[in-house]
Amino acid sequence: MVTGANGYVASWLVKRLLDEGLTVHAAVRNPDNTEKIKHLKEAAERSTGNIKFFQGDLLTAGSYKAAMEGCELVYHTASPFTIDVKDPQKDLIDPAVKGTENVLQSANHISSVKRVVVTSSCAAIYTDAIDSVNAPGGQLTEEVWNTTASLDYQPYSLSKTLAEQKAWEMAKAQDRWDLIAMNPPGVFGPPLNPHNATSESINILKMLGGGDMKMGAPRMGVGIVDVRDLAEAHFKAGFTPEAKGRYIVRAHNTDFLEMGTVLLPKYGGQYPLPKKALPKWLLMIVGPMTNKLFTRKFIRNNVNIPWKADNSKIKKELGMEFRPMQETMEDAFQVLVDEKMI
Ligand SMILES: NC(=O)c1ccc[n+]([C@@H]2O[C@H](COP(=O)([O-])OP(=O)(O)OC[C@H]3O[C@@H](n4cnc5c(N)ncnc54)[C@H](OP(=O)(O)O)[C@@H]3O)[C@@H](O)[C@H]2O)c1
Question: Looking at the whole model, is its pTM more than 0.90?
Answer without folding.
Answer: yes
